[in-house]
Amino acid sequence: MAEQVPYEELMRQLTAVGVVRRDLARILPHECPAGSVGVLIALKTHGDLRMSKLTELLSVDMSVTSRHVAHVAERGWVERLPDPDDKRSRILHLTDAGRDAITVLSRRTAARLAERLSDWDEADVRRLTQLMARLRDSFDDARASTDPPHSPQHELTPTPANATS
Amino acid sequence: MAEQVPYEELMRQLTAVGVVRRDLARILPHECPAGSVGVLIALKTHGDLRMSKLTELLSVDMSVTSRHVAHVAERGWVERLPDPDDKRSRILHLTDAGRDAITVLSRRTAARLAERLSDWDEADVRRLTQLMARLRDSFDDARASTDPPHSPQHELTPTPANATS
DNA sequence: TATTGTTATACTCTATAACTATA
DNA sequence: TATAGTTATAGAGTATAACAATA
Protein backbone atom coordinates (compact mmCIF):
# COMPACT_ATOMS: atom_id res chain seq x y z
CA MET A 1 0.00 0.00 0.00
CA ALA A 2 1.17 3.53 -0.73
CA GLU A 3 3.06 5.42 1.97
CA GLN A 4 0.82 8.47 2.06
CA VAL A 5 -2.19 6.74 3.60
CA PRO A 6 -3.87 8.76 6.36
CA TYR A 7 -2.98 6.38 9.14
CA GLU A 8 -2.94 9.11 11.70
CA GLU A 9 -6.56 9.91 10.97
CA LEU A 10 -7.50 6.24 11.17
CA MET A 11 -5.67 6.07 14.46
CA ARG A 12 -7.68 8.97 15.80
CA GLN A 13 -10.96 7.43 14.74
CA LEU A 14 -10.04 4.15 16.36
CA THR A 15 -9.69 5.99 19.62
CA ALA A 16 -12.97 7.78 18.95
CA VAL A 17 -14.80 4.48 18.85
CA GLY A 18 -14.37 4.55 22.59
CA VAL A 19 -17.09 7.19 22.69
CA VAL A 20 -19.47 4.76 21.03
CA ARG A 21 -18.52 1.85 23.21
CA ARG A 22 -18.93 3.86 26.39
CA ASP A 23 -22.30 5.15 25.29
CA LEU A 24 -23.53 1.66 24.55
CA ALA A 25 -22.05 0.33 27.77
CA ARG A 26 -24.13 2.83 29.71
CA ILE A 27 -27.35 1.03 28.86
CA LEU A 28 -26.06 -2.32 30.12
CA PRO A 29 -27.36 -3.58 33.47
CA HIS A 30 -24.79 -3.50 36.28
CA GLU A 31 -25.08 -7.27 36.45
CA CYS A 32 -23.96 -7.65 32.88
CA PRO A 33 -20.92 -5.58 31.92
CA ALA A 34 -19.45 -5.55 28.44
CA GLY A 35 -17.14 -8.49 29.11
CA SER A 36 -20.11 -10.65 29.96
CA VAL A 37 -21.94 -9.59 26.85
CA GLY A 38 -18.99 -10.66 24.73
CA VAL A 39 -19.04 -14.12 26.23
CA LEU A 40 -22.79 -14.52 25.84
CA ILE A 41 -22.84 -13.37 22.23
CA ALA A 42 -19.93 -15.62 21.31
CA LEU A 43 -21.69 -18.64 22.77
CA LYS A 44 -24.95 -17.75 21.08
CA THR A 45 -23.17 -17.37 17.76
CA HIS A 46 -20.82 -20.35 17.89
CA GLY A 47 -22.61 -22.77 20.18
CA ASP A 48 -20.83 -24.66 22.96
CA LEU A 49 -17.18 -23.77 23.27
CA ARG A 50 -14.15 -24.68 25.31
CA MET A 51 -12.32 -21.93 27.20
CA SER A 52 -9.42 -22.03 24.77
CA LYS A 53 -11.64 -21.61 21.74
CA LEU A 54 -13.63 -18.82 23.33
CA THR A 55 -10.38 -17.10 24.26
CA GLU A 56 -9.29 -17.26 20.66
CA LEU A 57 -12.59 -15.80 19.45
CA LEU A 58 -12.41 -12.93 21.92
CA SER A 59 -8.74 -12.30 21.19
CA VAL A 60 -7.83 -11.74 24.80
CA ASP A 61 -5.72 -13.59 27.34
CA MET A 62 -7.32 -16.70 28.75
CA SER A 63 -7.17 -15.27 32.24
CA VAL A 64 -9.53 -12.58 31.03
CA THR A 65 -11.90 -15.10 29.53
CA SER A 66 -11.84 -17.09 32.74
CA ARG A 67 -12.84 -14.03 34.70
CA HIS A 68 -15.71 -13.10 32.42
CA VAL A 69 -16.96 -16.66 32.22
CA ALA A 70 -16.90 -16.95 36.00
CA HIS A 71 -19.09 -13.87 36.14
CA VAL A 72 -21.76 -15.14 33.75
CA ALA A 73 -21.60 -18.61 35.29
CA GLU A 74 -22.34 -17.16 38.74
CA ARG A 75 -25.46 -15.59 37.30
CA GLY A 76 -26.64 -18.82 35.74
CA TRP A 77 -26.26 -17.65 32.18
CA VAL A 78 -23.55 -20.13 31.29
CA GLU A 79 -22.79 -23.66 32.50
CA ARG A 80 -19.28 -25.08 32.65
CA LEU A 81 -19.72 -28.73 31.76
CA PRO A 82 -16.96 -31.32 31.98
CA ASP A 83 -15.29 -32.26 28.72
CA PRO A 84 -15.43 -36.05 28.29
CA ASP A 85 -12.40 -35.95 26.01
CA ASP A 86 -10.12 -33.97 28.30
CA LYS A 87 -10.61 -33.64 32.03
CA ARG A 88 -8.60 -30.44 32.15
CA SER A 89 -11.04 -28.78 29.80
CA ARG A 90 -14.52 -27.43 30.32
CA ILE A 91 -17.32 -27.00 27.84
CA LEU A 92 -19.18 -23.75 28.06
CA HIS A 93 -22.89 -23.95 27.43
CA LEU A 94 -25.36 -21.07 27.17
CA THR A 95 -28.36 -21.68 29.41
CA ASP A 96 -31.94 -20.68 28.65
CA ALA A 97 -31.57 -17.87 31.15
CA GLY A 98 -28.48 -16.77 29.26
CA ARG A 99 -30.40 -16.79 26.01
CA ASP A 100 -33.10 -14.67 27.58
CA ALA A 101 -30.53 -12.23 28.86
CA ILE A 102 -29.05 -11.83 25.39
CA THR A 103 -32.47 -11.22 23.92
CA VAL A 104 -33.07 -8.37 26.31
CA LEU A 105 -29.62 -6.91 25.75
CA SER A 106 -29.80 -7.15 21.99
CA ARG A 107 -33.15 -5.46 21.94
CA ARG A 108 -31.98 -2.66 24.16
CA THR A 109 -28.75 -2.19 22.23
CA ALA A 110 -30.53 -2.23 18.90
CA ALA A 111 -32.91 0.43 20.16
CA ARG A 112 -30.01 2.61 21.22
CA LEU A 113 -28.23 2.15 17.91
CA ALA A 114 -31.39 2.86 15.95
CA GLU A 115 -31.73 6.06 17.94
CA ARG A 116 -28.13 7.15 17.46
CA LEU A 117 -28.01 6.17 13.78
CA SER A 118 -31.44 7.40 12.86
CA ASP A 119 -30.11 9.37 9.92
CA TRP A 120 -27.96 6.55 8.51
CA ASP A 121 -29.15 4.39 5.68
CA GLU A 122 -28.84 0.68 6.04
CA ALA A 123 -26.19 0.35 3.34
CA ASP A 124 -23.76 2.53 5.28
CA VAL A 125 -24.34 0.58 8.45
CA ARG A 126 -23.51 -2.59 6.59
CA ARG A 127 -20.47 -1.07 4.92
CA LEU A 128 -19.10 0.08 8.24
CA THR A 129 -19.78 -3.29 9.84
CA GLN A 130 -18.01 -5.11 7.04
CA LEU A 131 -15.00 -2.85 7.08
CA MET A 132 -14.64 -3.18 10.83
CA ALA A 133 -14.88 -6.94 10.54
CA ARG A 134 -12.15 -6.90 7.93
CA LEU A 135 -10.04 -4.65 10.11
CA ARG A 136 -10.33 -7.03 12.98
CA ASP A 137 -9.44 -9.96 10.73
CA SER A 138 -6.35 -8.18 9.46
CA PHE A 139 -5.14 -7.69 13.01
CA ASP A 140 -6.07 -11.15 14.19
CA ASP A 141 -4.24 -12.76 11.30
CA ALA A 142 -1.15 -10.67 11.79
CA ARG A 143 -1.06 -11.31 15.52
CA ALA A 144 -1.41 -15.02 15.00
CA SER A 145 1.52 -15.19 12.60
CA THR A 146 4.04 -12.60 13.74
CA ASP A 147 3.33 -11.72 17.34
CA PRO A 148 4.08 -14.87 19.30
CA PRO A 149 7.04 -13.31 21.12
CA HIS A 150 6.21 -9.77 22.21
CA SER A 151 6.83 -6.18 21.22
CA PRO A 152 9.74 -4.81 23.26
CA GLN A 153 8.32 -1.30 23.73
CA HIS A 154 11.28 0.91 23.01
CA GLU A 155 12.00 4.21 24.68
CA LEU A 156 10.50 7.40 23.40
CA THR A 157 13.12 10.02 24.21
CA PRO A 158 15.83 9.32 21.63
CA THR A 159 14.47 11.25 18.66
CA PRO A 160 17.51 12.72 16.95
CA ALA A 161 16.01 12.48 13.48
CA ASN A 162 12.93 14.50 14.42
CA ALA A 163 14.31 17.18 16.66
CA THR A 164 12.55 20.30 15.46
CA SER A 165 14.36 22.68 17.74
CA MET B 1 -34.24 3.45 9.17
CA ALA B 2 -35.73 -0.01 8.57
CA GLU B 3 -36.06 -2.29 11.57
CA GLN B 4 -34.13 -5.22 10.12
CA VAL B 5 -30.72 -3.57 10.25
CA PRO B 6 -27.97 -5.89 11.51
CA TYR B 7 -27.31 -3.95 14.67
CA GLU B 8 -26.21 -7.04 16.52
CA GLU B 9 -23.42 -7.58 14.03
CA LEU B 10 -22.38 -3.96 14.25
CA MET B 11 -22.37 -4.31 18.00
CA ARG B 12 -20.06 -7.31 17.76
CA GLN B 13 -17.66 -5.50 15.48
CA LEU B 14 -17.57 -2.52 17.79
CA THR B 15 -16.33 -4.82 20.51
CA ALA B 16 -13.87 -6.32 18.09
CA VAL B 17 -12.22 -2.97 17.59
CA GLY B 18 -10.78 -3.63 21.03
CA VAL B 19 -8.46 -6.14 19.41
CA VAL B 20 -7.10 -3.43 17.17
CA ARG B 21 -6.74 -0.87 19.93
CA ARG B 22 -4.92 -3.31 22.17
CA ASP B 23 -2.57 -4.34 19.40
CA LEU B 24 -1.71 -0.73 18.65
CA ALA B 25 -1.38 0.09 22.34
CA ARG B 26 1.27 -2.59 22.64
CA ILE B 27 3.76 -0.59 20.60
CA LEU B 28 3.39 2.50 22.77
CA PRO B 29 6.19 3.31 25.21
CA HIS B 30 5.31 2.79 28.87
CA GLU B 31 5.82 6.52 29.37
CA CYS B 32 3.12 7.34 26.88
CA PRO B 33 -0.08 5.33 27.25
CA ALA B 34 -3.07 5.74 24.97
CA GLY B 35 -4.62 8.48 27.06
CA SER B 36 -1.53 10.61 26.64
CA VAL B 37 -1.48 10.04 22.92
CA GLY B 38 -5.03 11.30 22.66
CA VAL B 39 -4.11 14.53 24.39
CA LEU B 40 -1.00 15.09 22.29
CA ILE B 41 -2.78 14.43 19.00
CA ALA B 42 -5.67 16.70 19.91
CA LEU B 43 -3.29 19.54 20.72
CA LYS B 44 -1.30 19.00 17.57
CA THR B 45 -4.49 19.03 15.51
CA HIS B 46 -6.35 21.89 17.16
CA GLY B 47 -3.58 24.01 18.58
CA ASP B 48 -3.69 25.47 22.09
CA LEU B 49 -6.77 24.44 24.03
CA ARG B 50 -8.39 24.98 27.38
CA MET B 51 -9.17 21.96 29.52
CA SER B 52 -12.89 22.29 28.87
CA LYS B 53 -12.44 22.34 25.10
CA LEU B 54 -10.05 19.42 25.14
CA THR B 55 -12.49 17.52 27.30
CA GLU B 56 -15.19 18.12 24.75
CA LEU B 57 -12.96 16.92 21.93
CA LEU B 58 -12.04 13.76 23.77
CA SER B 59 -15.62 13.11 24.84
CA VAL B 60 -14.69 12.07 28.33
CA ASP B 61 -15.21 13.51 31.78
CA MET B 62 -12.99 16.45 32.61
CA SER B 63 -11.48 14.54 35.51
CA VAL B 64 -10.12 12.10 32.95
CA THR B 65 -8.69 14.85 30.82
CA SER B 66 -7.10 16.39 33.90
CA ARG B 67 -5.39 13.13 34.70
CA HIS B 68 -4.03 12.59 31.21
CA VAL B 69 -2.89 16.16 30.91
CA ALA B 70 -1.10 15.94 34.24
CA HIS B 71 0.74 12.92 32.89
CA VAL B 72 1.96 14.58 29.71
CA ALA B 73 2.72 17.81 31.58
CA GLU B 74 4.95 15.92 34.00
CA ARG B 75 6.92 14.64 31.04
CA GLY B 76 7.32 18.07 29.55
CA TRP B 77 5.22 17.40 26.48
CA VAL B 78 2.55 19.92 27.38
CA GLU B 79 2.61 23.21 29.25
CA ARG B 80 -0.32 24.53 31.27
CA LEU B 81 -0.24 28.26 30.78
CA PRO B 82 -2.43 30.75 32.65
CA ASP B 83 -5.42 32.08 30.76
CA PRO B 84 -5.35 35.89 30.84
CA ASP B 85 -9.13 36.02 30.32
CA ASP B 86 -10.08 33.69 33.15
CA LYS B 87 -7.85 32.90 36.08
CA ARG B 88 -9.68 29.63 36.74
CA SER B 89 -8.75 28.37 33.32
CA ARG B 90 -5.52 27.04 31.88
CA ILE B 91 -4.29 27.02 28.34
CA LEU B 92 -2.69 23.83 27.18
CA HIS B 93 0.25 24.20 24.86
CA LEU B 94 2.15 21.47 23.09
CA THR B 95 5.89 21.85 23.63
CA ASP B 96 8.59 21.06 21.13
CA ALA B 97 9.36 17.92 23.08
CA GLY B 98 5.70 17.01 22.79
CA ARG B 99 5.81 17.52 19.06
CA ASP B 100 8.84 15.29 18.82
CA ALA B 101 7.11 12.62 20.85
CA ILE B 102 4.13 12.66 18.51
CA THR B 103 6.35 12.35 15.51
CA VAL B 104 7.92 9.22 16.89
CA LEU B 105 4.59 7.77 17.90
CA SER B 106 2.92 8.54 14.60
CA ARG B 107 5.74 6.98 12.70
CA ARG B 108 5.65 3.86 14.79
CA THR B 109 1.90 3.58 14.65
CA ALA B 110 1.84 4.13 10.91
CA ALA B 111 4.41 1.39 10.47
CA ARG B 112 2.28 -1.00 12.49
CA LEU B 113 -0.85 -0.13 10.57
CA ALA B 114 0.93 -0.45 7.25
CA GLU B 115 2.05 -3.89 8.34
CA ARG B 116 -1.38 -4.99 9.52
CA LEU B 117 -3.23 -3.50 6.57
CA SER B 118 -0.73 -4.48 3.92
CA ASP B 119 -3.43 -6.02 1.75
CA TRP B 120 -5.85 -3.10 1.99
CA ASP B 121 -6.09 -0.51 -0.71
CA GLU B 122 -6.03 3.11 0.28
CA ALA B 123 -9.65 3.73 -0.70
CA ASP B 124 -10.92 1.20 1.82
CA VAL B 125 -8.81 2.69 4.57
CA ARG B 126 -10.31 6.07 3.82
CA ARG B 127 -13.82 4.68 3.64
CA LEU B 128 -13.45 3.01 7.00
CA THR B 129 -11.96 6.13 8.54
CA GLN B 130 -14.80 8.28 7.25
CA LEU B 131 -17.50 5.93 8.41
CA MET B 132 -15.97 5.69 11.88
CA ALA B 133 -15.77 9.47 12.04
CA ARG B 134 -19.42 9.69 11.12
CA LEU B 135 -20.29 7.07 13.69
CA ARG B 136 -18.54 9.05 16.36
CA ASP B 137 -20.32 12.21 15.29
CA SER B 138 -23.69 10.51 15.45
CA PHE B 139 -23.04 9.48 19.02
CA ASP B 140 -21.53 12.78 20.06
CA ASP B 141 -24.48 14.71 18.70
CA ALA B 142 -27.01 12.44 20.33
CA ARG B 143 -25.22 12.57 23.67
CA ALA B 144 -25.05 16.33 23.57
CA SER B 145 -28.75 16.73 22.95
CA THR B 146 -30.53 13.93 24.79
CA ASP B 147 -28.19 12.57 27.42
CA PRO B 148 -27.71 15.38 29.92
CA PRO B 149 -29.46 13.47 32.71
CA HIS B 150 -28.35 9.83 32.74
CA SER B 151 -29.52 6.39 31.64
CA PRO B 152 -31.13 4.62 34.62
CA GLN B 153 -29.79 1.14 33.83
CA HIS B 154 -32.81 -1.08 34.34
CA GLU B 155 -32.75 -4.61 35.67
CA LEU B 156 -32.14 -7.53 33.41
CA THR B 157 -34.15 -10.34 34.94
CA PRO B 158 -37.75 -9.46 34.03
CA THR B 159 -38.03 -10.94 30.57
CA PRO B 160 -41.58 -12.26 30.30
CA ALA B 161 -41.90 -11.52 26.59
CA ASN B 162 -38.81 -13.54 25.68
CA ALA B 163 -39.03 -16.56 27.93
CA THR B 164 -38.05 -19.43 25.65
CA SER B 165 -38.63 -22.17 28.19
C1' DT C 1 7.26 -32.04 30.17
C1' DA C 2 3.38 -29.60 28.04
C1' DT C 3 -1.28 -27.94 28.19
C1' DT C 4 -5.96 -26.30 30.20
C1' DG C 5 -7.69 -23.39 33.13
C1' DT C 6 -7.82 -20.49 37.54
C1' DT C 7 -6.24 -17.00 40.65
C1' DA C 8 -3.32 -13.09 42.44
C1' DT C 9 -1.50 -8.84 41.25
C1' DA C 10 -0.86 -4.64 38.86
C1' DC C 11 -1.89 -1.10 35.49
C1' DT C 12 -4.86 1.82 32.39
C1' DC C 13 -9.09 4.10 31.46
C1' DT C 14 -13.21 5.84 33.08
C1' DA C 15 -16.98 8.14 35.95
C1' DT C 16 -18.78 10.17 40.34
C1' DA C 17 -18.27 13.03 44.08
C1' DA C 18 -15.96 16.26 46.98
C1' DC C 19 -13.04 20.09 46.91
C1' DT C 20 -10.47 24.74 45.59
C1' DA C 21 -10.28 28.91 43.16
C1' DT C 22 -12.14 31.96 40.60
C1' DA C 23 -16.41 34.31 38.13
C1' DT D 1 -24.52 30.85 43.02
C1' DA D 2 -22.17 28.89 39.10
C1' DT D 3 -18.11 27.44 36.56
C1' DA D 4 -12.98 25.61 35.60
C1' DG D 5 -10.23 22.46 37.09
C1' DT D 6 -8.11 19.00 40.46
C1' DT D 7 -8.03 15.02 43.34
C1' DA D 8 -9.81 10.88 45.82
C1' DT D 9 -12.14 6.83 45.17
C1' DA D 10 -14.18 3.00 42.92
C1' DG D 11 -15.20 -0.12 39.05
C1' DA D 12 -14.28 -2.48 34.58
C1' DG D 13 -10.95 -4.55 31.26
C1' DT D 14 -6.68 -6.32 30.45
C1' DA D 15 -1.98 -8.73 30.80
C1' DT D 16 1.68 -11.28 33.38
C1' DA D 17 3.02 -14.62 36.45
C1' DA D 18 2.37 -18.34 39.60
C1' DC D 19 -0.34 -22.23 40.41
C1' DA D 20 -3.35 -26.77 40.09
C1' DA D 21 -4.90 -30.55 37.56
C1' DT D 22 -4.51 -33.39 33.72
C1' DA D 23 -2.32 -35.08 29.26
Summary keywords:
disordered C terminus, DNA-binding, 6 helices, mainly alpha, about 160 residues
Low-pLDDT residue spans of chain A: 148-153, 158-165
Mean pLDDT of chain A: 87
From the N-terminal CA to the C-terminal CA of chain A, the straight-line distance is 32 Å
Give the class of chain A from helix and strand content and strand pairing. Answer: mainly alpha
What oligomeric state do these chains adopt?
homodimer
Q: Please compute the radius of gyration of chain A using only Cα atoms.
A: 20 Å
Major β-sheet profile of chain A:
3 strands, antiparallel
The outline of chain A comes out as: globular
Strand content of chain A: 5-15%
Quantity of strands of chain A, as a count: 3
Helix content range of chain A:
55-70%
Order of helices and strands of chain A: HHEHHEEHH
Strand order of the largest sheet of chain A: 1-3-2
Which two chains share the most extensive interface? A-B, 82 and 83 residues
Q: What count of helical segments of chain A does DSSP give?
A: 6
Description of the structure:
The structure is a homodimer of 165-residue chains. Chain A is built from 6 helices and 3 strands. Chain A is mainly α. In chain A, helix 3 packs across helix 4. The longest helix of chain A has 25 residues. The C terminus of chain A is likely disordered. Chains A and B meet through helix 1, helix 2, helix 5 and helix 6 of A and helix 1, helix 2, helix 5 and helix 6 of B. Chain A binds a DNA duplex (23 and 23 nucleotides) through helix 1, helix 3 and helix 4.
